[in-house]
Structure prediction request, 540 residues.
Amino acid sequence: MIRPLLAGVLLLFVLSLLTGPAGLSVPDKFILLQLRLPRAGLAMLVGAGLGLSGAVLQGALRNPLADPGLLGIGGCAALGAVVAFYWGVAAVFAPALPLGGLSGAAVGAIVLLTIAGRGASGPSLILAGIALSAITGALLALALTLAPNPYALAEITFWLMGGLEDRSLLHLILAAPPILLGCALLLRLGRRLDALALGEEVAASLGVPVARTLRLAAVGVALAVGAGTAVAGGIGFVGLVVPNLLRAWMGERPGALLGSSMMAGAALLLAADLVARAAPLVLPLTEEPRLGVLTALIGAPFLVRIARRVAP
Amino acid sequence: MIALEAGAVSLGGRIVLRKVDVRIAAGEVVALCGPNGAGKTTLLRALAGLLSGTPRRDPRRVAYLPQGASCAWGLTVTEVAALGRIPHNDFAVAPVTRALAACGLIGLRSARVDRISGGQARRAMLARAFATEPEVFLLDEPTADLDPAAAHEIMALLRSTAHGEPPRTVVVVMHALDLALRYADRMLVLRDGQLVADARPVDALPAAAAAFGLPYGVEPNPVLLPPR
Prediction:
């Protein structure tokens, strides 16, 4: 199952490198390096981070409805980026936007772990995440209402919907290390997540350090999703949908879903980004549809299917 | 063999277990009996080292099965049993197969635990404990939702495991005093967090009867027949 997924990711990656505003073409070196590679690379990395984070959180919280957004780290990254927008730093110094996002995610992760405490359990982590989401949501809304001018308001809203257009190598260089580190951390949790399937008490009796595992999961998700949101804006549904789709094919053992969710997340976001770029070519659109909008449009029907299957 | 010497255990400010000092040898099936809320589960968790202040146990040596254990995902019976190998950090197949065979689950090995009966799922959880190949089994009501035949089968399995070679220690929280009388070597009776009896089941029965406030007794001619 991993191999076909890997092949699919590579195929979509190459396709993404060859797709430009005028359709399929082999670009010259400069365009390939400065425009296509960052875009395709980011789609792959951000998608991989979201898919894997979703699988880990669903396993750790024993709930197929858990989504990386649940921990509120994405919201913190968005808030950090919006602050950079808001003070106009981003207009003067381009890297301020992803850097603001990364700082927001880092602060969010620290706050989350502090609220959840040393003896973190599933419910305490969820509650901490909800509290963090509520705070960042309120502050984001405040930033939007106090936006210095209508242009800034539009710009912020637009960015929040997620997208990968006009990203540079700098974005890729900023986002890749935290995402890769987060994924490496999360991929190691497979066996512990398997044990958690039987509940936190049984996992503890099997020698699994439950609180530590939950904190590691939160740190990994914060790295992968925080960095992803910092460069790509808010992209929903990937983390929620991907593990649920794979469960039907691969069985439900949480540890078995990690690698495949990472691959499928990368494939899904590469595909969604290709659709975003293809849309203005075939539809009477002047702009690419936002990536976050597309993932939600693609993801929601899958959820409806899952809901029908789950129903007794 | 497992031993625990601990002071009072309180949960949420309420003392659940007063001073305990238990020692259970290998080759013994010990039934832990008493009314609801007497502290049976707390004592078992303390033995398992899951309460703060109790000594940590080596998960390869001690297998613990909580009350009403369930699986969050639709794992297969084999996958559930294989979770018992986590403490050993291996993917050995032979002990898992032995555990499935011991618990009578070979025919159901690739069935999903959420699509089999409650009693079968309970046996899958028990197979997980067997797959660990532990020296000590700490089981919280493993026969709770089994039919009488299956309950006798499980208790017979536990007894033969305890008395087997090498001998194992088996501690079972149970409410069925008839099963305890028949299969246990020793009965611990808890009442209001206090150990009120620790003896052969026949001798501990009056204390259990008093704890429940029920007129339990053993007929001179046993009415229980062997399971088969």
Observations:
- Chain A has 14 helices and two strands.
